[in-house]
Every structure is written in structure tokens, then in C-alpha cells.
């Protein structure tokens, strides 16, 4: 059986399903505006494209499929279909909650025998890894410049218990999925720059969520301070919470 490219497959589905629904609309068999029709249809396209990629990843000798996007598209499409049919409530804004799918993907890849090696980093010296779980809460822990990339990251920094040098310290974290919690003392100034496709950003009273591209926040006296923290985060999906005490 011929394996179409993802683009050809999506276009074909839009023509088939879109044409069928619009035909029913024109015949008066269903009542729906055009924009409502496409809003109803696109989850089915996502779902079928995801299933296609999963089947190709499993059965195709040339491995045309993609495990991760196949899993993600089929689950997201299935949940959106369930929402359209009234079984559950699920919108694009809920996609952030699906980040554990990446862990499922890693497990499947490992069991399939073709997965990458998983590394767990638990200290600030690691520069990269697939999965990172970092908690810095020890008394008087040393704050240093940091530049890390990790596929899936869970960071918990308590700067109220740290030794922060009298200079600007830069913390760069990047990857696919980031869950970051930070506690900063009131007398330390900081700036935050984030880049994400989907995000939930909470910095004190500053909030930004949904389809977030970029977010920027700078505390009031940052420019004049000597002891300060410069956070730079770049993730596909980011859940960030920063509090001052």
C-alpha cells in the first residue's frame, strides 16, 4: 500500500471531510456555518494523521512514521473529538496538561528497542540530558551561571536559601517541556525572558498563558542593582511559577 506524505494526507482529509460536510450543509441536512464546520472537522484530521504516523512507525520498513507526533496528534485529536461530541470539555488551552505524553513516548521507545538513553540529572553541573529533575534547596547552595538543555525538565530553585554573588548571574534553561518553580528573596532583583509555543507563566501578579510566544518581566530596580538574576527560558511547553518572599 502506498504511504502518502503527511501533507498529502492532511490535504486529502480536508477535501474529503470538508466536502462531505459542506454538501450536507448545502442540502439542508445539517445546520452549520462554514467556520463551524472546519472547527468541527480539524480534530478528526489531527486524529487520523496521528494514527497514520503511529502505524507507519510500527509497520513501515522504512520507518516513515513519527512516534512522538503520532502519539501526540492522535491523543490531542481524540480528546478534541470527544469535546466536539460533548463527552468531555477539552480545548487547545488544555494541551499544556498533556506534557506527560512525552514520558509515555520515552517508555514506548525504550520498550520498542530503538529509544534513546535516558539520563537523570540531579545537580547543576550537567549541561544536557533527556530527562532532568533538579531541586536546589540546600542551605547556602552556591548560585552560578547555568546553561542547560533537557528534553523534559522539572526544576525547583529556592534562592532564599542560596548564596547569591554580588553580580549578574545568568540562568539559561531550554528543552521541549519545562516545569519550573522558583522562590526569590525580596532584596534580589531579577529579569525573566521566556520563549514557548504553549505556556503558563506566573510571576507574582504577572500572568500569561495559552499559546505563548514570548514573555518578558523585569523587577523594578533591576538596572541599578549589582546582585541580580537573569533567567532565560526556551521551551516548546513551559509551566513557570516565580514567587518573591
From TrEMBL:
<feature type="transmembrane region" description="Helical">
    <location>
        <begin position="9"/>
        <end position="31"/>
    </location>
</feature>
<feature type="domain" description="Cell wall-active antibiotics response LiaF-like C-terminal">
    <location>
        <begin position="131"/>
        <end position="240"/>
    </location>
</feature>
<feature type="transmembrane region" description="Helical">
    <location>
        <begin position="92"/>
        <end position="112"/>
    </location>
</feature>
<dbReference type="InterPro" id="IPR016975">
    <property type="entry name" value="Cell_wall_LiaF"/>
</dbReference>
<dbReference type="InterPro" id="IPR047793">
    <property type="entry name" value="LiaF_C"/>
</dbReference>
<keyword id="KW-0472">Membrane</keyword>
<feature type="domain" description="LiaF transmembrane">
    <location>
        <begin position="11"/>
        <end position="114"/>
    </location>
</feature>
<dbReference type="InterPro" id="IPR024425">
    <property type="entry name" value="LiaF-like_C"/>
</dbReference>
<dbReference type="InterPro" id="IPR054331">
    <property type="entry name" value="LiaF_TM"/>
</dbReference>
<keyword id="KW-0812">Transmembrane</keyword>
<protein>
    <submittedName>
        <fullName>Cell wall-active antibiotics response protein LiaF</fullName>
    </submittedName>
</protein>
<feature type="transmembrane region" description="Helical">
    <location>
        <begin position="67"/>
        <end position="86"/>
    </location>
</feature>
<keyword id="KW-1133">Transmembrane helix</keyword>
<dbReference type="Pfam" id="PF22570">
    <property type="entry name" value="LiaF-TM"/>
</dbReference>
<feature type="transmembrane region" description="Helical">
    <location>
        <begin position="37"/>
        <end position="55"/>
    </location>
</feature>
<dbReference type="Pfam" id="PF09922">
    <property type="entry name" value="LiaF-like_C"/>
</dbReference>
